[in-house]
Amino acid sequence: MARTIILSLLAVVLPFAAYLFWLRFERWRERLPPEKRPVPWVPLLAVGIVLALVVVFGEALLGGAPAGGRYVPARIENGQLVPGQFEAPVK
User: Fold this and answer.
1) CA–CA dist 12, 52 (Å, integer)
2) Torsion of CA 39, 41, 44, 47, to 10 degrees
3) What angle do CA 31, 36, 40 make, to 5 degrees?
4) Transmembrane ranges (predicted)?
5) For residue 5, what are the CA distances in angstroms to 1, 2, 12, 35, 53?
6) pLDDT exceeding 70 applies to what percent of the chain?
């Protein structure tokens, strides 16, 4: 779950980072003085939300536990914490 949240947040931030990188590259290439340019917030946010939805749907379709699997909760074995996990179904 944490992985999905982190990937979704990165997907939202990625268009902004790409825009800033492109802006810096253009300024460096053109050797232009920094100018005030309005940031296209709505298109960047829309692209970020679409990317986040792709991440969430991708995780839902490709990730997760096997069908019919059994959940084994977290436990302590020999003083070590063994995290909870899904076991594949026994055939």
Assistant:
1) 6
2) -170
3) 105
4) 42-62
5) 6, 5, 11, 35, 11
6) 95
Q: Is the pTM of this model over 0.70?
A: no
Asked whether the predicted pLDDT for residue 37 surpasses 70, the reply is yes
Closest by CA to 89, choosing from 64, 65, 69, 63, is: 69
Instruction: Say whether 80 sits in a helix, a strand or coil.
Output: strand
**Domain residues of the chain, as ranges?**
1-87
Q: What pLDDT, on a 0 to 100 scale, did the predictor assign at position 45? A: 93
For residue range 73-87, list pLDDT tens digits in order. Answer: 999 999 999 999 888
